[in-house]
Structure prediction request, 82 residues.
Amino acid sequence: MNNIQSVTPLESFRLLVAFNNGSSITVDLSAKLKTVRFAELSDIELFNDVRADKNGSETIVWGDGVLKIPLYELIDVVISGK
Prediction:
């Protein structure tokens, strides 16, 4: 599996996730903000404080590890649209 090289927050609670093979995906998390797990990301400052986890880069992290999402879950959001 490809590793996450970088994560860039975009408008409307979307993320641009770039991989080490040169490909990228845009993940729209706006629908997830109504769930218990993702609700705290509705704070735009926290949402914008996103990065690729330094250990293996198959996870993205917000803040000081407040929330972590593995790559497979991000891909599921892209595929399902939810």
The chain has a mean pLDDT of 90.
